[in-house]
Amino acid sequence: MNNALGMIETKGLVPSIEAADAMVKAANVELTGQEKIGAGLVTVMIRGDVGAVKSAVDAGLQAAKNVGEVVSSYVIPRPHSEVETILPTIQASDSTEEQ
């Protein structure tokens, strides 16, 4: 993992979704994971170039604050390759309806 890792932790699902939406719209980043921690805490993670991730996290913070509570955020510029093993991944859902 040579790119930066950006994280935003919110209280509640809605602000985390709002943060994720704002982050991927604000910069060229990839949404890489979401983790429901417990006690209503949800963390969303993105990856991309350092500048893009910093910009995206800033946009995500503002968006999440508009609809809920932000607990924490952080950008790791070049995380060690072993960090990859502990990161959750996004599970794609089947959005097609059966007819």
From TrEMBL:
Localization: Bacterial microcompartment
Keywords from the UniProt entry: Bacterial microcompartment
UniProt-listed Pfam families: BMC
Coiled-coil stretches noted in the UniProt entry, renumbered to this chain: none
Keyword Transmembrane listed: no
Gene3D superfamilies, per the entry: 3.30.70.1710
GO CC annotation terms, alphabetical: bacterial microcompartment
Annotated ranges, domain BMC: 4-88
InterPro entries: BMC_dom, BMC_shell, CcmK-like_sf, CcmK/CsoS1_BMC
PANTHER family given in the database record: BACTERIAL MICROCOMPARTMENT SHELL PROTEIN PDUJ, PROPANEDIOL UTILIZATION PROTEIN PDUA
Name of the protein in its database record: PduJ protein
